[in-house]
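Board work, copied verbatim: GNAT family N-acetyltransferase
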Amino acid sequence: MDVTVREMEPGDWGAVSRIYQEGIDTGTATFQPEVPAFSEWDRSHLPVCRLVAVVSGMVIGFAVLMPVSSRAVYAGVAEVSIYITKTCAGNGAGTILLHALIVESERQGIWMLQSGILSGNAASVRLHEKCGFRLVGYREKVGCDRHGTWRDVIFFERRSRVVAWENPAEK
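↓ predict structure ↓
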């Protein structure tokens, strides 16, 4: 499969929202019960590091970042959200996309990426481990899924070897 990665464009929302819905439907990708309107989705994600994976002109996945906090000291820390359409899962597209997100996040000065993965999502765990993330812990029964089951979230992080953290108080 010949996967290319590019910046997300406004016209990609239809494909991105369909792929996100596929993730919601699995029950192992997110606690989100439905795809939000674009305006809500847009506000909750960083304006940089919005990437899509494309095969033969079709968007097959996306990776974006969310801020972990509004506090200045966490400006270089972001949470990863990555989804691949089920028809392309397991073909290496996720690895290509996550590597591209890592490179772009470092270019943007982000020094640490975090991922919260619902327990039972073995494919996402493998992907993050393959891309240099390490397990740092979990939160037990932190959220209730759409079926009423309380689920654990496993936390992974990847610290940049390229970007040095700068103390905003020292500027």
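The chain has a mean pLDDT of 92.
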